[in-house]
Amino acid sequence: MALLEIENLHASIDDKPILKGLTLAVEAGKVHAIMGPNGSGKSTLSAVIAGRPGYRITEGTIRYRGEDITGMDPEKRAQAGIFLSFQHPVEIPGVAFTTFLKSAINAQRKARGEGEIEITEFLKKIKQAARDLEIPDAMLKRALNTGFSGGEKKRAEVLQMTVLEPTLMILDELDSGLDIDALRIAAEGVNRLRSPERGFLCITHYQRLLDLIVPDVVHILVDGRIQRTGDPSLALELEERGYGDFIPAQAGQ
């Protein structure tokens, strides 16, 4: 049984169909990459898996660990171990980064019937993760994402993944807006989280991210459907030839 199973998924936003019968399975221990042109449905797919409001599922199912979560609230999905790393993380003025992290950890622990995390354990987890991601103490004391650079925002997201320890991680264009040094640091943080128990769905336009986070499987998403699936060489083929060969004749008509 796959960690994530999506079957014949149809989804729309503002009554515009975006996903048009998408089927996908992500196994524990594997990194699956989704590549596709703008408007193909990549970000919609990530949002629908996480349960973000505003998207309407008209057909199909999403199963996580064998459970149908198609209609599950987003907070319940997060508590169950699904984490979405946003393409453009939002700023939350007035909420300290560490306060946010502690609240998120305790919400997960409460959902599992556990008590709140001890402050010493919390600080140990935060400080180790921050060192690995080259995040200075001063950044931890700031409001979440407020005034952060693009690289700082993405490292903050990886820090959240590190301390929350989700089982399914959806990386929506982790490389967006990052220079090569910032991308390397973020990618190294993701690679440290790879384990036989976790699955990853890595959404990207570019090979440069997949040079750092090497996928096990690559999917080409065009016009709301997976058009082709292969090994990492498929991404290299795409880099050379573009999306033209993967666009169905009826797309855009």
TrEMBL record:
Q: Where is the ABC transporter domain?
A: 4-248
**The UniProt record lists the keyword Nucleotide-binding:** yes
Report if keyword Transcription regulation is assigned.
no
What GO molecular functions are on record for this protein? Answer: ATP binding; ATP hydrolysis activity
| Pfam families referenced in this protein's UniProt entry, alphabetically | ABC_tran (PF00005)
> Keywords on this record?
ATP-binding, Nucleotide-binding
The record's annotation in InterPro entries points to:
AAA+_ATPase, ABC_transporter-like_ATP-bd, ABC_transporter-like_CS, FeS-cluster_ATPase_SufC, P-loop_NTPase
What does the similarity note say?
A: Belongs to the ABC transporter superfamily. Ycf16 family.
This protein's name: Fe-S cluster assembly ATPase SufC
Species in which this protein is naturally found: Phaeovibrio sulfidiphilus
Name of encoding gene: sufC
